[in-house]
Design a protein that fits this description.
This protein has four helices and 20 strands. Strands 3, 4, 5, 6, 7, 8 and 9 form a seven-stranded mixed sheet that branches. The radius of gyration is 25 Å and the shape is elongated. By secondary structure, it is mainly beta. The chain has three domains: 63 residues, Dna Ligase, domain 1; 103 residues, DNA ligase/mRNA capping enzyme (D-amino Acid Aminotransferase, Chain A, domain 1, 2-Layer Sandwich), CATH 3.30.470.30; 129 residues, OB fold (Dihydrolipoamide Acetyltransferase, E2P) (Beta Barrel), CATH 2.40.50. 28% of the residues are buried.
Amino acid sequence: MAATLTDKRFTGPEWIFERKLDGIRLLAFKKGRDVQLFSRNQLEQHNPALADAIAGLPHRELILDGEVTGVWGPASTREADKPRGLAYHVFDVLWIDGRDVMSLPLDERRALLKTLPLRAPLRRVASLDDEKPWERACAEGWEGVIAKRRDSVYEHRRSPNWLKMKCEASQELVVGGFTDPQGARVGLGALLVGYFAPRPGSGRPERESKGEGDDFVFAGKVGTGFDTKMLLDLRAKLDRIEIDKPPFTKATGLPRLRAHWVKPQIVVQVAFIEWTVHDKLRHPRLLGTRTDKSAREVVRERA
């Protein structure tokens, strides 16, 4: 079962939250003293420390799901059997002593998991009780959090019943256009945003990119994070500065239909997961507008 990426932030009694670990997903199959470990792409993995720990659990048959963190390989021949910080963070149980429990609700599977006497390098993944667990994740340098429905069964697919909320970056960007609203939406569909960067050969570092010879680089579309008032207010402002042609001087992927272009004057703050390999925003959402910064000061944050 895999989690679906979401840019929404929410809590509720029907959800539990866990830390999103930055490791290797691992399924563990135990039958007697025999233990097999498989990665999510079904390749068998070999680690004596983990296998021995799982073999010692007081059940003849188990299938566990979790994430491995730490060092896999030995530092030297003498240390070949030392886990060296290795940990298997177990968050689900799928089979126990001849019983398939994948159809049980997550809460019941977690209750079964609590009965297992896990000892290092095995660890049980705890649920988070923070009011806004994603804020704790980002403050403590985690990759993010996983939200799981308490009543969810275990599915062999990427499921909307498990959602991953990754820690977001934030970037000031300049509006260069917008698209028309569709369906019941009002005001506008999405903002078309970008940033200024020195043209090749200008000799200016990007941080000092404020000259008239700079490129205005298209960074993508921002279509979430608005309420109705913001949609209508922004549309009114954008209508007053509309122009005939795209202001972007370096752009791939600009929409061809239902697009309007504006003078690059309005600065917005945008949250997003990461920059794609094509230098576009991944899963962006609007945080608000900025009135304290000139559009020409907006360059790409690369940290």
